[in-house]
Every structure is written in structure tokens, then in C-alpha cells.
Amino acid sequence: MKKIGFDSEKYIEEQSAYILERVHHYDKLYLEFGGKLVDDKHAKRVLPGFEEDAKIKLLQKLRDQAEILICVYAGDIERNKIRGDYGITYDMDILRLIDELRGYGLSINSVVITRYNGQPATKVFINKLERRNIKVYKHAEIEDYPINVEKIVSEEGFGKNEYIETTKPIVVVTAPGPGSGKLATCLNQLYHESQKGNAAGYSKFETFPVWNVPLKHPLNIAYEAATVDLKDVNMIDSFHFDAYNKVAVNYNRDIETFPVIKRIIEKITGKESVYQSPTDMGVNRVGFGITDDEVVQEASKQEIIRRYFQTACDFKKGLTDEDAVNRIKLIMEEVGLRPEDRKVVTPAHEYAKTSQATSTESMAVIAIELPDQVILTGRTSQLMDASAAVVLNAIKYLAHISDDIPLLSPLVLETIQGLKSKALHSSIDTLNLNEVLIALSISAVTNPIAQVAYEKLAELEGAQAHSTVMINKNDEQNLKQLGIDITSAPVYPSENLYYQ
User: Residue 305, class by beta-carbon neighbours within 10 Å (0-12 exposed, 13-18 middle, 19+ buried)?
Assistant: First the structure.
């Protein structure tokens, strides 16, 4: 049974009340949402009991008073920047986000393209949005932002960017990832609201780091592990300590930029800022939802190990630099963790050692730990890959089906292999997880045993798994969609450069 360390309902109630309290001071509050608005799986992993759609439920409580702006940096569209957890580009993620938010009954005001200067791929994306009746605003890059306050807060700065027409007292500003221009969009709006004589305010809703837990708490260190590529470092908020003689945790970028942001806000409003520290700017109450600190600490340590493997694999793929690898190793040392402290790592590699592999291939084995703490394995064979094998083994165990009873007809699987190799001319005929799950769902219609196993797929939610080699992107996404937290050793499965 999974241990719970966080009260999501208490958090949502307290968080919504705190935001509404902040809104009462202004005609309009621009609320910058950091992190993931939908499917916050990092928070779910490090705060057992946190619902990954908690922020959406929060917004649903406020939906009569809130509308949403989505920002994206034009340069991220141009270089096809990928959102790692979904494996899709930022422009596609915006389309996904709009669909999901609409599905929750939330109001989407518009998409804001930041630092736009006519980039070709971005033009295509703008056309796509506008032809689907999504309003788009374009903001140009402001030279010397955010240093030259005089220029920024003038007709040559924010004044040359479009004012975004909004109608509700809370304007949530979100984005598919960091560096998308959320803060600049909020400040741009403050400038134009001030020009119109409206009293508008700015606040930041950033879940991590958690300001009211200790600096070196594993929960906050897990945030550093998740952002090694951004080089974020948690720090004591010196501004907060100086103003109130109280310790609060923030991160380097917010602390470094606070003085200039404060000056910009004061220049816009013409009066002294109500904020004495970057922590003051925040509205996050997540720390008050923790109910079992020991559970949260252990979950956070496991997340640090997962991030260690992810960073090592990203480096192997050329997606990050050596600094990130060195940083995650230091974090592991700081917390006193080893890769083997993830329970599924050793069983996977021990089973791989006992299996036969060619001189040019590493044996692909995946070990999975089920919610009852039983660990099972699956390996790649001529018929199916390790991801498919381990999932079948897991649901057979959960359904109490004997190992020697096949869930799928060998004839069906061989027919699918023939389709791949002969009709579709694929150089790899080993069946992947998606293909095996489709075969299972079809077999479940006529095979009662397959039906029982098929119904157990939902029980894989929260399972932990580790692969001895890097698995392909499709298998990785399918495992994540099943709710399985998968890590991989930074090893390619073969010497092939394209076909993996």
C-alpha cells in the first residue's frame, strides 16, 4: 500500500483562499504560474498524495474569476524544443494544453508569442492558431531587458507591445516550459493597465522550491535535481530575512532578479512596492499540505535517483552537457544516495548478466516493482521487446495467471511481425509495447483470460521500473501513460545509429 504524505484537498482549499485574499488588493491580479499547470507528475512523485491535476482543480474553484494566457518563446518554436515528459514540441504542447483546459471548463484568453521577430515556423504556428479562432498576441524582444528599467517602462519598451484585453480579475499566465516570457508578459500588462488607470498587481505561483521547508530538505533538493539543465540553485531568501528576520527558501534566479523586478513594478505604479522579497511575491501554500514529512523525504530521495538516470541518458543522447551530469552526481553525494538505492536497479542488471547477449548488443532487461513491492522482470526476445514482456508478466502476476499460460496467441503475434517486416518493410520486427497492448485488447474480446489480465493494466499506476538499456521513445511514453515511473541505464541497446 502506497504511503501518503500530502493532503491534496487541504492544499487546494488553502491555496484558493490565499489567492483570493491577494486578489482583493487589486482590480486585477496577473498570476504567473511556474511549473506544469496540467499533469504535474514531479509534484505527484515527491509529495505522495498530491493529485497531478491539483492546480486544475484549484483553477476550477476560481474559474468564474479567472482566465488564462499561454506564453511561448518564438525561438523555442523555431528550434522545435521538446517537452520531455510528453515527447512533443512546445507548439504541439500548447494545442494539447488548450484542449485540456477547455475540457475542464476553463477560459482561454489567448496565446502570447514572446520575443517575436517574424520567425518563419512561428508564423505558420500563428496562422494555425488564428485559423482555429485562437486569439494570438505578438510581443517583440525589448533590448536590455530587464536591466534598462527606464527604457523598459516606456513607449519604447512595454509601450510598443500589444495590450492583451482581459475581462476577469485573475489572469493566469502559464507556458509549456521555462524561458517562455511569462514574467515579461505580466509586467507588460501591468504597464498598460497603469496607463489606463487600473490598479493591477503581480504574484507568482511557483510550487518548488517550497519556501517554508528547510533549504536542504530532500523535497527542495529534488527540485534542484529536476532543473540541473537550468542550473537552478536553492538559496535562503536574503531579502526576506532582512525584512522579517525569517528564513525562507527561494532559488537563485528569483533572488538575483528581484531588485530589478521590484524597480520595474515601482516605476510602473509610481509608488513603493508592497513586496520586500521574492518570497513575498509568491502565493504558494504547498508546504502546508504536507502531513507526513518522512514519507515526503523518502519519495523525494527516490525522485533524485530518477533524475540522476534521466540526466545520464540525456547526456548520452546529446541533449544536455557535462555540467548537468556533474551537478546531478554532486546532488546524489550531498544526499548520500547511490543508483542502487532504487530497488529495481539491481534486479534488472543481475538478470541481464545471466542472459545471453551478442558482442554488439547489451541485453535489454526491465525490472518492475509493483504496488505490493513484488519485483518482476522481462527481457527482449525475438518476439517482443523488454517493455512489452515486463508489462505482460506484471499483469499476469496481478491477475494470478500462471506463467505457462499464454495471454496472446503466438499465431497472432507472428502475423503482426509479418505485417511489420513484409508489408511495412520495417527492419525491426520485434513487437513493441504499443503493438502488444493492441493485440491484448483485441484478444480480450474473445479470450476470458486475456480479459482478466487486460483489466489489471490500471493497477500498474505508480509502479517503479528500470531498464538496463535506453528504451525507445514510444515504449517510454507508453509506460508513462500506464503510470509506470521508468528509468534507464545510459546504455544504447545496440551499435545501430538509427534503428534502436
Answer: buried
